[in-house]
Amino acid sequence: MLKGRPAAPGLALGPLAVLAAIEGGDRSAGSPQEEMAALEAAITNAIAEIDELAARTNGAGAEILEFQSAMLADDTLSEPALAAIAAGRPAQEAWTAALTDQIRDYQLADDETFRARGADLVDLRDRVLRRLLPAASAVAIPQGAVIVANDLTPSQFLEADWSQGGGIVLVEGSPSSHVAMLARSRGVPMVVDMGAVTVAGHAKALIDGNTGRVVLSPGTGENATFARAMTAASLAAQRESAALYRPVVTRDGIAVAVLVNISGPQDLASIEPASCDGVGLFRTELMFRNGEPLPDEEMQYQAYCECLEWAGERPVTIRTLDIGGDKPIRGLTTVGESNPFLGSRGIRLTLARPDIFCVQLRALARAATKGNLKIMLPMIAQPSELAETSRLLDSVTADLAREGKPCRRPPLGIMIEVPAAALTAERFAQAAFFSIGSNDLTQYVMAASRDTPAVASLNEGAPEAVLQLMAATVTGGRRLGIDVSLCGDIASDIRLLPPLLEIGLRSFSVAPAALGRVKTALEGLTCGGANGQG
Amino acid sequence: MSGKAEASVLLANPSGLHARPAVKLTKLAKTFKARVQILVTGQSDWVDAKSIVKVMALKTPGNSTLSIKAEGDDAEDAVAAMVALVERQFGERLNDA
Description:
By secondary structure, chain A is of the alpha/beta class.
């Protein structure tokens, strides 16, 4: 049993297929003119191959291929190779040497995106080599096979037929590579960074992309386990799609709302409105990006309206701008803060910049006539921040009315993520609702960053201290008659739903991908516990 | 009208002149008869703006200043069009994450 790094989830069982790297090949060289002609023909054929593949690919795959085609068509790429051929080297050596130089140049780049272009050049180098060395032309990847290779290029992935299943095991590679991204989006299980693997003498393999396990020549026991796991996975998928369109009721008859977290109207394209109870969190930060002009009132208004149109009568809760020094935006965020996470961010930043805040509030107040829009404020620590925003919102609505523009003063609620707010929830009686931001609440309470590997584990699970604070928030909200919901990754982990239900939460906003499994899981749970009231 | 033209423009895209904008830039440059070149301030010599390989090899980060120059019949149009493309941030949609 072998273990690598999981790169794309899923299970597969199939015949082993080893992909050998392109070798130096036994091609006899002709005269320099013949070699140049051979290289140019190989390049022309390679371009045609890429263009043909691009014609039947879409999305990210097509863009990668368009880029590769343009690179190959550029004389600059082959110039050094042609010069080497003129100096007497055989075509495949000249080409390999020239491309390897350029690959190395990219691999040394500071920027990760530019470094990743090295992989595209490897792809191009090998594609042309395959045309030059017919003996080493690519073995077609058999359908349903578990492929073992040193690494896999994006175009090798895109050329294969995955409709009969199959999996990928790589000796090297990384979960953040282009090809891992393609595997995830196609649902092909993939394990990387296996290290040296001897597959001689084995005909079949089982791959578990969730754990990174690979089993060569699985025995009857393994096969049976696999068959059960596959059946379970397909049953789960069926149950989830059935649960998806039902409103959730727990086993003890309690209704639970399940909403989605989005970053913009583009996220809604793949979600059916009927599959959720609305948008629990629309993060507006993505509309604000460094170096680009700040989104004006009209642009924001359009984005909010799109979401409301999608939602129909369902609520759409839009969180005002939540950024700080860690995501610099020129002209907006503060430069040089020693601790941006405890600095001028969220509501603090927007209250300090009413010029920008009022643009967003105006867009929200105008959009509020189009549907069930609610505004949510991030990083609230004290009631005065809510009061000040409320005054701003009132004045913006009055302005719009004077200007004769249709508008509505939407409900104004707050995120509970700063420990101060969680501990003193009852001071926020003016809030229309509370939404617990468990991600940041956990980081602040455990005093541990999710981005620091050495301490990140302190954020895992549902730490007792965080549960207590969330319970205090729920109690406070109940005393005030204010609804409390949760939007944070914790609700997407179905193992943590029982304690969340137990402290009294009845509304969760989760990532769209988690909708099915969260709804299915909730249907199987009881609310129970001392707080288990309806 | 044969001529020369030159201009500078800020490359504001956060990821710089990566693959997608580079393809757009070179495709646009190729639509003009003039010889078109670009230079990244402080970083390189003038390179052929019609060559994707050369443009990519610059590995230009965001917030760089690009200078664009052209020589030939439609030089002024070429520079104007290239500047406009960079200013529009290559039409990259705001919701590309």
